[in-house]
Amino acid sequence: MDISELVGSSEAQLSGIKSPEDLENFRIKYLGTKGLLKQASDQIKQIPVDQRRAYGQALNGAKESISAAYQQKKLEMASVPAVLTGIDVTEPGRIHCDPYRPGTLHVIQQTIDELTDLFGQMGFSVADGPELEDEFHNFEALNVPTDHPARHPLDNFYLEQLTGGAPRMLRSQTSSVQIRVLEKSKPPVRIIAPGRVYRPDTVDATHSFMFHQLEGLYVDRGVTMIDLKTCIDQFARAFFGASVKTRFRPSFFPFTEPSAEFDVLFTGDNGQNRWIELGGCGMVDPNVLTAVGIDPEMYSGFAFGLGVERIVMRRHGIADIRDLFENDIRFLTQF
Ligand code: FA5
User: Fold this and answer.
1) Which of 61, 74, 126, 243, by CA, is between 20 and 30 Å from 143?
2) How far is CA 300 from the centre of its chain?
């Protein structure tokens, strides 16, 4: 058998191979135990003694080059995208493989959904407003005058004005949605507005520079403080359980009069009780109603703004707000 002819024919055949089946047939034909190389090797006995050495060397060279060419082709075919060789990469995982593991909603979103349901049962529908706000909606219409400390540049994220116009800011409270809603609708109004707010607060166990609030607003004829306290108490009992301990502390907000802060009792890891502030609330200040063209002699209302992270922390016994934003999958999958 002519060795160089054998190598030549193997090269020609290999270059035309397109499927793994053909490649395997090639291997059997040339490199198999009864293949052409083995047959050539068996023929050595018929080769004249003085030519055997040269024949043997040529045969070894042929084995090496055909094996190397075969391995190379095998590698090339393995790197062809799976989809081209008939494997459907979109097919769902099999039971014995790693099955699909769907993600879960973040515990903050779960809580917002639950609160939306709960307040929905009390007749509140959901309203929305922009996170990028102007000072009118975030402050002015809410009775917060220009010189009020809450408007200080160091206490807010103001945006650089590139095109002129009214200064813009990341809203510091969802109370801005009260104005957005009252501008568009006439009483009775009964809405909640969950969403993100931003403040350059120093981050610690209970403060973040971005957090979520859930605003509530009810404006109608004859709304009183009793309606406000009943609404907040109903929420707390439904959400935390009937035995939850709550308190209202007198407070001040420019857009409510009177105003209060609303706390629930929290038992920490060390078993110690402490009051945790969930939000602010009060009766809508008549100036706010006037600013949006509603007659305060005819209508009254209450408003509240709850801190969603604080609610999540109280519910699940989370001592540090930062755990909610670190995106540690081991933490998140607990909820
Ligand atoms: C307000 O933002 C008022 N807009 C609430 C309000 C609405 C009052 C309607 C009256 C009527 P305050 O700044 O207290 O209030 O924030 C409300 C809640 O947000 C706090 O009680 C707390 O639960 C939460 N909160 C405030 N700052 C942070 C922070 N840095 N990180 C996490 N939660 C915060």
Assistant:
1) 126
2) 39
pLDDT in tens, 159-182: 987 667 778 999 999 999 999 999
pLDDT, position 89: 78
Ligand 1 center–CA 214 separation, angstroms: 9
Section 276-284 average pLDDT = 94
Instruction: Give the closest residue (by CA) to ligand 1 atom 10.
Output: 281
DSSP 85: G
Considering the domain architecture, whether residues 115 and 39 belong to the same structural domain is answered as: no
Ligand 1 pocket, residue 201 CB under 6 Å: yes
Query: How many residues are recorded in the chain?
Result: 335
Q: Are residues 159 and 38 in the same domain?
A: no
Residue 63 Cβ contacting ligand 1 at under 6 Å: no
Q: What is the DSSP letter of 32?
A: S
Centroid of ligand 1 to alpha carbon of 278 (angstroms): 8
Which atom of ligand 1 approaches the CA of 213 most closely?
A: 19
**What is the C-alpha to C-alpha distance for residues 132 and 197, in angstroms, rounded to an integer?**
10
Residues 174-203 as b/e (b if ≥16 CB within 10 A, e otherwise) read bbbbbbbbbeeeebebbbbbbbebbbeeee
Mark whether 137 and 245 lie in a shared domain: yes
pLDDT over threshold 80, residue 267: no
| DSSP helix/strand/coil, 126 | strand
Q: Please give the structure tokens belonging to residue 23.
A: 């490649």
Same domain, 281 and 150: yes
Interval between CA 155 and ligand 1 midpoint (Å) = 14
- Both 122 and 167 in a single domain? yes
Last residue of a domain, one of 30, 54, 85: 85
Whether 76 shows a pLDDT value over 90: the answer reads: no
Range of the domain at 74: 3-85
In-domain check, residue 96: no
What number is the average pLDDT over the span 119-129? Answer: 97
Q: Could you say which of 85, 116, 135 is where a domain stops? A: 85
Q: Does 91 fall in a domain?
A: no
